[in-house]
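Tokens in:
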């Protein structure tokens, strides 16, 4: 590989890393919002069931069943966030590898 192509690859990867950080921030907000919505709706559902005198041992399971779609959205946003973290780590590894190649090539 030529030094210029390696340098270009590092530049491209660094730019992708910067963009990934912005995406990670967006996904973090999405994750937090999904968690907030889920917990709020779960609490409301539990309160309604207590008011309606639903048997206490059933409330937790029934309430979670009613907000299952929100829990799914919460879990999905969490997994997307974790996936973005993994992608950023992969970009960092790629940049480190390219820098090592560049270092070896410049010594030759």
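Residues out:
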């Amino acid at each position: 590989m030529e030094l210029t192509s390696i340098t270009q690859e590092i530049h491209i990867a660094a730019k992708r890393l910067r963009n990934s950080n912005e995406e990670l921030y967006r996904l973090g907000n999405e994750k937090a919002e999904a968690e907030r919505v889920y917990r709020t709706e779960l609490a409301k559902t539990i309160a309604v069931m207590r008011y309606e005198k639903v048997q206490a041992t059933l409330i937790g399971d029934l309430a979670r069943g009613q907000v299952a779609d929100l829990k799914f959205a919460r879990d999905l946003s969490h997994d997307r966030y974790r996936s973005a973290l993994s992608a950023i780590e992969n970009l960092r590894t790629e940049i480190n590898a390219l820098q090592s190649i560049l270092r070896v090539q410049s010594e030759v």
